[in-house]
Amino acid sequence: MNLPNSLTVLRIFFVPLLVVVLLTRQPNWNFWGLPFHFEVWGVLILLVAAATDAADGYIARKRREITTLGILLDPVADKLLIIAAFIPLVEMHLVQAWMVVIIVGREFIVMGLREIASVEGLVIPANALGKTKMILQVMAGCTIIFTANHPALKNVGRVLLWLVVLSAVASAIHYFQMFWSQINFRFQERRRRSVLLVEAKDKPQDVLSR
């Protein structure tokens, strides 16, 4: 359990905390006359969790502390965070359910494709489109959480949410294309090997028959 993995576990810990803050709409405190309502705490939790996502990967690469545990936990923590950020917003009537279905569905589709690829010994690397999607998700989530008590931000939140949906669809298509190209290449490679193996078995018989 190194520092990068500890940050990943911390991000998972933030998931139920974020859900509780958003659904209970608590706490609502005042510090020296400044209001710190639940939306402020929700945004802070989401931003800190997103910061751990960026930090754990950077530290792991810099210190060369990439572990199997980190590889397994990191994508799970990311997906749990996105689910915790957007599903409560549906309950709060701040986001339409079908948009969240697309956003969350994309996460499970990519996870499924990666699992199938890993069984075949293949790796589908992260790309710029996926990272852009994550940044847009955090920005949209923070903005929409603020709209709970600041309706003036609704239009900004709506635009960011549409960008998230479009980037999620584009990212899912791109991941599927990469998955299909690698799987198809592996299939063609296996087919060539099987043909060569059959030909190698037939050659001695041809020689004996002559």
The strands making up the biggest β-sheet line up spatially as 1-2
State which percent range the strand residues make up. under 5%
CATH architecture: Up-down Bundle
Distance between the termini: 66 Å
Shape: elongated
Per DSSP, the total helix count is 6
Give the CATH H-level superfamily. Answer: CDP-alcohol phosphotransferase transmembrane (TM) domain
User: Helix share of residues?
Assistant: over 70%
Q: Quickly give the structural class.
A: mainly alpha
* H/E element sequence: HEEHHHHH
State Rg.
Answer: 23 Å
Largest sheet: 2 strands, antiparallel
Mean of residue pLDDT values:
85
According to DSSP, the number of beta strands is 2
Question: How many structural units, i.e. domains?
Answer: 1
**CATH fold-level label:** Four Helix Bundle (Hemerythrin (Met), subunit A)
Instruction: Give the CATH level 1 class.
Output: Mainly Alpha
- Which spans have pLDDT < 50 for at least 5 consecutive residues? none
